[in-house]
Amino acid sequence: MAEPKPRRPLADSTAVHDQVYDSIRQALITGKIAPGVGVSLRSLAAELGVSPMPVRDAVRRLVAERALAINPANKRLSVPSLSAERLEQLELARQWIEPELAARAAPRADEALVRKLKAIDQDLEEALRVGDVDRYMVANHAFHFAIYERAGAEVLLAMAGGLWLQIGPFMRVVFGRVGTGSLPADRHAQAMDALKVRDAEGARRAIAADLSEGMDKMRAAVEAGAGLTVAPTGQTVITVS
Amino acid sequence: MAEPKPRRPLADSTAVHDQVYDSIRQALITGKIAPGVGVSLRSLAAELGVSPMPVRDAVRRLVAERALAINPANKRLSVPSLSAERLEQLELARQWIEPELAARAAPRADEALVRKLKAIDQDLEEALRVGDVDRYMVANHAFHFAIYERAGAEVLLAMAGGLWLQIGPFMRVVFGRVGTGSLPADRHAQAMDALKVRDAEGARRAIAADLSEGMDKMRAAVEAGAGLTVAPTGQTVITVS
DNA sequence: GACCTTGCATTGTGATCGCAATTATCGACT
DNA sequence: AGTCGATAATTGCGATCACAATGCAAGGTC
């Protein structure tokens, strides 16, 4: 315990608990932590090479954003497993807020944004080709939020971020199962075209369609019974049947 | 400092940081803490008779829910002052999510719910008569969320709760200024009537109208210049002109 | 008298310790 | 050999301390 503290690099500045937050958030969005598995403050702290304190702070934020769940009896932490009802509500909320953000971003779009999106989309398609699910998840997130940030709607943006955080782990499981081959990147092309000419309604429709297709996949996976069964210990086994 | 620690009663069970959270949350919703004023962990801890530690946890949650803001430079805490853009986005989000919750609650409404709402509404009107703004705020919150909880939509309910938390402090300022005399409780009657016959669309319209009128007042107050001016120290003076 | 500097109080952050509760592990007994 | 019970380990929660940074205020200088 008298080690010189590895202290992982982790980006650059800001407070430690913010870096821890970003680390866990990325792990959740990209699905590096499977839904249902239990985590602990000390284990996360050890893994990140920090003291339990900043982890505790980061976990509080994530619990507040419902990206982590806390067993009311145990008081133990876990990644929430997604139920059909939860999925339905998250879908509804996303279908309302994300097209709205895209529509608001359209009038404020410029050439630089479109270029950035094009770069992200190329990376995304490359990830699809080589079947790198992690990279695809990161790129897809980057694509959507590059648009949403342009809307200049802080409150709505934060809400959208929270929704992705909640749906991220499950997306990863589904996409890892059905494969990424059939994912339609053409909706992204539609969105970029609409943004190029500052067509708000076009952007709204493109994002709505993109979401709709993605969520269809997830819903189909859930209804097909590819659910998550929670073992009595709290540990979760992902049944891909 | 060697005092025997007053340790405020504070509800009943659960962890200390949850009780602290509820206390601050209530204070924000009812507007006991004015927008823009700076708070500190230690001052809140002293006021609640607890150590700074659980306050720190509670504040993390509230910051994550955007009910408290943290100055990126200072890293100091404050109640966020509401801007016109923020208000517009919060209104949009509320106008979408709260009527939706009301509509979902309608088919699940029963006599007990209507009775409960009636009791709350009577208390609300009494508060209006005597001009007790705090009591009105509490009752109004209770009325809406008694309905929303019935929707059985956990995710949407949490989102609605977050929105109230963000808009609460400002509501209080506005209502405290324009007086509560002209507030239309008849929308509540409409909502109760719709719930009584399980009329989803009626409930949706009633809540939408209720929100619309309330937000109109707030928007008018903002545009009339009854804004909040932040002093250089971070302390805020409420200009009721 | 106005402005700058110096000192002190307060702030958030992180670390470490102790505690009670729960869980896991292993030994003992029937 | 199987089941039960006791011990040890882990977990989250709260308290306290240390520290760097910031804010505030008093006092000094021009």
Automatic annotation (TrEMBL), chains A, B:
<protein>
    <submittedName>
        <fullName>GntR family transcriptional regulator</fullName>
    </submittedName>
</protein>
<feature type="domain" description="HTH gntR-type">
    <location>
        <begin position="14"/>
        <end position="82"/>
    </location>
</feature>
<keyword id="KW-0238">DNA-binding</keyword>
<dbReference type="InterPro" id="IPR000524">
    <property type="entry name" value="Tscrpt_reg_HTH_GntR"/>
</dbReference>
<dbReference type="Pfam" id="PF00392">
    <property type="entry name" value="GntR"/>
</dbReference>
<dbReference type="InterPro" id="IPR036388">
    <property type="entry name" value="WH-like_DNA-bd_sf"/>
</dbReference>
<keyword id="KW-0804">Transcription</keyword>
<dbReference type="InterPro" id="IPR036390">
    <property type="entry name" value="WH_DNA-bd_sf"/>
</dbReference>
<dbReference type="GO" id="GO:0003700">
    <property type="term" value="F:DNA-binding transcription factor activity"/>
</dbReference>
<dbReference type="Pfam" id="PF07729">
    <property type="entry name" value="FCD"/>
</dbReference>
<keyword id="KW-0805">Transcription regulation</keyword>
<dbReference type="InterPro" id="IPR011711">
    <property type="entry name" value="GntR_C"/>
</dbReference>
<dbReference type="InterPro" id="IPR008920">
    <property type="entry name" value="TF_FadR/GntR_C"/>
</dbReference>
<dbReference type="GO" id="GO:0003677">
    <property type="term" value="F:DNA binding"/>
</dbReference>
